[in-house]
Amino acid sequence: MTEIDCASAKTILLVEDDDVVRQLTAEVLGEFGYRVLALRDGHSALERLRSEQHFDLLMSDIGLPGMDGRELVEAARQLRPTLPVLFASGYYERELLEEVRARDSAAPTESIVKPYDFKLLAQRLSELAG
């Protein structure tokens, strides 16, 4: 688990199973001014979402072991129905994104392809979390 703290920053729950990608992404998000809680798997993320801790955005890899990103978001929506989601993937997942949006239009959902274009990442985060 990696936590980067910036005063009065929006808080992002980052879920990424690749250690290097998780650490690099957490560092970049911290440089953008976000507070980041970075976790390895969906089950750990759900534990945090069950807590009282505030999150402004869930950023999750789609291809997680055990519970994949789609399953994580489905469970997260039961706990926090309006939490914005940014899916991350090595592939463009248009069908997945459309499916998730169709099921729950109350919360904004977007995607970004890895490796990240940092300008696009900053834009998506700003649109979703402010």
Give the averaged pLDDT, no decimals. Answer: 87
How many separate structural domains? 1
Strand count, sense and closure of the main sheet? 6 strands, mixed
User: What is the oligomer described by this structure?
Assistant: single chain
Report the total helices.
Answer: 5
Please mark out the parts with pLDDT under 50 across 5 or more consecutive residues, or reply none.
3-7
Strand content: 15-25%
- Tell how many strands the DSSP assignment holds: 6
Q: What proportion of the residues is helical, as a percent range?
A: 40-55%
**CATH classification class:** Alpha Beta
> Strand-and-helix sequence, N→C?
EEHEHEHEHEH
CATH architecture: 3-Layer(aba) Sandwich
Say what the CATH topology is: Rossmann fold
- The H-level CATH homologous superfamily, spelled out, is Response regulator
Q: What class would the helix/strand composition place it in?
A: alpha/beta
Rg calculated over all Cα atoms:
13 Å
Domain Response regulatory: 11-129
Organism: Pseudomonas sihuiensis
Protein name: CheY chemotaxis protein or a CheY-like REC (Receiver) domain
InterPro entries: Bact_response_regulator (IPR050595), CheY-like_superfamily (IPR011006), Sig_transdc_resp-reg_receiver (IPR001789)
